[in-house]
Specification:
Blueprint: H1 7-27, H2 34-56
Helix pairs in contact: 1-2
Length: about 70
């Protein structure tokens, strides 16, 4: 499934998900509900995947070395 996908979007999505969770968990403590965690994290990951797979179409990790 991920063989032909953009690895940059996958790595940035994982980094964003972890950092957003940590910021929301320890930065805002009890002010954010569980639904807001899901909306912010999943929405951001989907935005990153769409941005790098369909709009930018550039992968920093799969560059052609022969060219």
């Amino acid at each position: 499934m991920w063989i032909n996908k953009n690895m940059t979007s996958a790595i940035l999505g994982i980094i964003y998900a972890v950092s957003a969770y940590l910021i929301m968990r320890f930065g805002f403590s009890d002010e954010i509900s569980l639904g807001m965690y899901a909306i912010v994290i999943i929405g951001g990951v989907i935005f990153i995947l769409i941005l790098f797979n369909y709009i930018l179409k550039y992968d920093f990790f799969k560059t052609n070395k022969g060219e």
